[in-house]
Amino acid sequence: MPVTPFQQRVYDAVALIPPGRVATYRGVATRIGCGSPRAVGQALKHNPFAPRIPCHRVIASNLTLGGFMGHVDGPAVRRKVRLLEGEGVRFVDGRLEDSARLHDFGRM
DNA sequence: AGTCGCCACGAAG
DNA sequence: CTTCGTGGCGACT
Q: pTM for this one?
């Protein structure tokens, strides 16, 4: 699957997320100049750079986990939480415990 | 090339 | 919680 410039922007933005922090689809979308977080989610679900892009650091703006590897629920999401917890980002009841872990791309 | 449907979301009601 | 709207990509026509 050919990678579109749009996806490239998404992957680049996500790759800029430092460890121990998470970004929201909204933040990434705004960062890349896209008002649609849905497009970001779609780009990430394609994930041509699966292990290369820390897509597990991307969560929904409502502090929910969102999805992972094309799964909205299941072992993949569980793995996602485990990865984030390994970086210091703890989740409670499927939600981000510390909202301060949200990475600011510099929104406005 | 134009149109329809899909998506891991967001905001509004 | 439910519904509509936005933006973009894939597939079909």
A: 0.91
CA–C1' distance A4–B2 (Å)? 20
pLDDT for residue A1: 73
Question: A55 catalytic, yes or no?
Answer: yes
Question: Any residues with CB less than 8 A from the CB of A37 and at least 6 apart, and which?
Answer: A24, A25, A26, A28, A29, A61
Closest nucleotide over all strands to A34 (CA to C1'):
C7
Which protein residue's Cα is closest to nucleotide C7 at C1'? A36
